[in-house]
UniProtKB/TrEMBL annotation:
<keyword id="KW-0547">Nucleotide-binding</keyword>
<keyword id="KW-0479">Metal-binding</keyword>
<dbReference type="InterPro" id="IPR014729">
    <property type="entry name" value="Rossmann-like_a/b/a_fold"/>
</dbReference>
<dbReference type="InterPro" id="IPR018317">
    <property type="entry name" value="QueC"/>
</dbReference>
<dbReference type="Pfam" id="PF06508">
    <property type="entry name" value="QueC"/>
</dbReference>
<dbReference type="GO" id="GO:0005524">
    <property type="term" value="F:ATP binding"/>
</dbReference>
<keyword id="KW-0671">Queuosine biosynthesis</keyword>
<dbReference type="GO" id="GO:0016874">
    <property type="term" value="F:ligase activity"/>
</dbReference>
<dbReference type="GO" id="GO:0008616">
    <property type="term" value="P:tRNA queuosine(34) biosynthetic process"/>
</dbReference>
<protein>
    <recommendedName>
        <fullName>7-cyano-7-deazaguanine synthase</fullName>
        <ecNumber>6.3.4.20</ecNumber>
    </recommendedName>
</protein>
<dbReference type="GO" id="GO:0046872">
    <property type="term" value="F:metal ion binding"/>
</dbReference>
<keyword id="KW-0862">Zinc</keyword>
<keyword id="KW-0436">Ligase</keyword>
<comment type="pathway">
    <text>Purine metabolism; 7-cyano-7-deazaguanine biosynthesis.</text>
</comment>
<comment type="similarity">
    <text>Belongs to the QueC family.</text>
</comment>
<keyword id="KW-0067">ATP-binding</keyword>
Length: 198
């Protein structure tokens, strides 16, 4: 079975890539402010792991909100980085590319802690998977880490520091700002997982 991971270059999708070693990794430039950093990180991670890296351009920056779009957050936002229907869009675009490549499984790096976003929950991914199953093709969406914390994912996947060091979690810039929620999560998780080594 041909598999792919939707690789943002962040810690979670990096661990999925290291753990599951799919044939392909798909990174989408959808107009997010940190796109250049995410692409750079994803490329380095794929080179280190021997995974074929595919970049898809699909700019929807005019439809965004919050930190990732450089706009005020929506009134519906559960967090400042929230972008309406982002995961649904990313899955749809990645699914189109998977169909063209004959990929049967697309892995998404959502965690237990992502459930405060409705589109990070088990029911959301089950619904999307069902929707894809009603259409042509044989693509399935899987979430290998949905029951794990970030620290647990690092431990289960046995992702070494030298691979995670490439990851880019900043929400607002191609070079980590150190202050956004993505950077805070990155530093906190790395500290818990690696302690003084980091």
């Amino acid at each position: 079975m041909n598999r792919a991971v939707l690789l943002s270059g962040g810690m979670d999708s990096t661990c999925i890539a290291h753990w599951k070693r799919p044939k392909f990794a798909i990174t989408i430039n959808y107009g997010q402010r940190a796109a250049a950093g995410e692409i750079r990180a994803s490329k380095a991670i794929c080179e280190a792991l021997g995974i074929e890296h595919i970049i898809v351009q699909a700019d929807i920056s005019s439809l965004g909100s919050g930190d990732m779009a450089g706009l005020p957050p929506s009134n519906s936002a559960p967090a400042t980085e929230w972008w309406p229907y982002r995961n649904q869009f990313l899955i749809t675009v990645a699914a189109m590319k998977c169909h063209a490549l004959g990929i049967q499984e697309l892995m998404f790096g959502t965690l237990k802690s992502d459930s405060f976003h409705t589109d990070g929950t088990g029911p959301f991914f089950q619904s999307v998977n069902h929707l894809l199953g009603l259409q042509e093709g044989e693509l399935q969406i899987t979430t290998p880490a949905i029951d794990l914390t970030a620290k647990e994912l690092i431990e289960v996947s046995r992702t070494p520091l030298e691979i995670l060091a490439w990851s880019h979690s900043c929400h607002v810039h191609e070079i980590s700002c150190g202050f956004c929620r993505g950077c805070e999560k990155h530093f906190n998780t790395m500290g818990k997982a690696f302690g003084h080594q980091y």
